[in-house]
């Protein structure tokens, strides 16, 4: 049986459409890759799959009838890690679930289940840390603005948290790595894209962008933090455990590049 390598648009619906095509056309799929990925199997027939929302919906609806809530979340979280090759693990997970007509969540003897569970745990950890460490700064347009640079695509899963917690103010969280963000206008939260100049940075002095009161507040906060820190009681090992260095870029008191 000839093998197939599927190319999709990188979206979750696109991935589920690939799963639908695999079943519908009885394909032996060896890889599912987003655009621009290198072809791993030179002997496989390469097929580009166009995203079909209805087909994606059918696959997910069928999966939800069998899978646990944890299993559903793990699949989506694993997809959001953007880990190379994760798409084929998700396909195998779904195939096995449909074959058994039973949830396989927790069956860690299955390499695909184990890999997806580990990836989902990593995404969950990143989600909680982003929710804890994101810091907004007030712009001259009265919008609270923050940039993030996470290892994984967490914006879709932190949307609900920030919409609920900051429902009384306009805010924008922008992922500078993936070049899209979430904007809340006091009514709804939407996905947006922005085009920043190469010289712009949210951590540098942008007096023309941020409100004067914001600049003053950050100066006061840094002074307060420094004055209340008891150097003799600093436990660096414990501190790094709870606030890893890669998150310092978001914290005014930790990042010297902040205003």
UniProtKB/TrEMBL annotation:
Occurrences of domain DUF4130 (ranges): 88-253
InterPro entries tied to this protein: DNA_repair_put, DUF4130
Any single Pfam family the record assigns to this protein: DUF4130
Protein name per its UniProtKB record: Probable DNA metabolism protein
